[in-house]
Amino acid sequence: MATEPKPASPPLTERQEARRRRILHASAQLASRGGFDAVQMREVAENSQVALGTLYRYFPSKVHLLVATMQDQLQQMHETLRKRPPAAEAPSTRVAETLMRAFRALQREPQLADAMLRALTFADRSVSAEVDTVSRLTTAIILDAMRLPGPPTAEQLSVVRVIEHTWHSALVTWLSGRASIAQVKIDIEMVCRLIDLTAAG
Amino acid sequence: MATEPKPASPPLTERQEARRRRILHASAQLASRGGFDAVQMREVAENSQVALGTLYRYFPSKVHLLVATMQDQLQQMHETLRKRPPAAEAPSTRVAETLMRAFRALQREPQLADAMLRALTFADRSVSAEVDTVSRLTTAIILDAMRLPGPPTAEQLSVVRVIEHTWHSALVTWLSGRASIAQVKIDIEMVCRLIDLTAAG
DNA sequence: CGCTAATCTAGAACAAGTTTCAGACTCGCT
DNA sequence: AGCGAGTCTGAAACTTGTTCTAGATTAGCG
Known about the structure:
Two copies of one chain form a homodimer.
Chain A: H1 14-38, H2 41-47, H3 52-58, H4 62-83, H5 91-108, H6 110-122, H7 128-146, H8 154-175, H9 181-200
Helix pairs in contact in A: 1-4, 1-6, 4-6, 4-7, 5-7, 5-9, 6-8, 8-9
Chain B binds a DNA duplex through residues 2, 13, 15-16, 19, 37, 40-42, 50-54, 56-57, 60-62.
Pfam family, one (chains A, B): TetR_N
DNA-binding region (chains A, B): 40-59
Keywords (chains A, B): DNA-binding
């Protein structure tokens, strides 16, 4: 389907779209190498052949840039998951499986994950719109995995939010070396049990 | 690179202890006013009547300083809670009540909360020891509220971790204006249901 | 006491995020 | 074509976290 960017305000010209892409690419590349600190605005500008001022016109801060990078990556992840949805019987198992799949993808690029997650949780109010987009994408991925018959109830939305909270925070503790991969898995599976709980009640 | 940051290795003299206190006080004060950004190292140094280099000897980075500030605040919170423990019947209710009490305390100083939480989630590996201390304190608070008959099982520890994840992440979304107070409450109560789940199963 | 090592201070210096500005370039339009 | 508004560039400047240095001060000890 259409992988259109969100901004509805000003339609970008071809060259502008290309610039934007180059920037995001450079950002992801630098992040993959050295994590959050390695994404230096001057270097991103240089690597994407754009003036520093232009970089800042496209992304008003380093955090904006990295959150946009995360949007990009999540979108890809979402499509990948769409193609091969989890097969398990129970919704909670499907969600856990989905998140573990995403987790394995992040493990392949831990530095990139570090950059994106740190930016996401460090973001202040000025980035809330962009962070919200990421959140909605994550919610969509989880809801997809749940395959609800109808629209989610308020209670189910709360469960999804709690799963997201756990997901983000567990990743952060893993990235900072305070939790093992196994522990993240256990915690994800634990929080997914809330799904059964609301299905039954 | 002297080896004497946190570990109780070298006992501090009176004057050193006083300096440390002044620094933490200045940090909390500045944070209360303007949040994370308002805690500027030069200003902390000035307000606590300490040279910049000394400040860095006591706290090797801004994040270290703010995480230590959080330790300080949490400790107070823990004692306050010890004095008036939650009265409710069900463990899950007691935990939810406890966290909501802490939440209300944070609401009184939202800027301070912002500074501490942003530092906590932004912390990289070099701060993991200090972050871990905060995490253990939080765990202790939650376990206190649960009032388990014996030592917690592995499963219960996972539940506590998930609650902590939710707690931190929910606070972050609240601080960045993406979730209401009511929503945080709902999510906390939701995740606390996991306690009943493991008590029953 | 008087010595020595550690600590503290003031201040400069450095690094990276962010802002600013003058001039060159593009785009959409007529 | 040619014009005007908006965009891009290159470079310098500014801000704040962090590091470094040289000289004063302090703590502990014989």
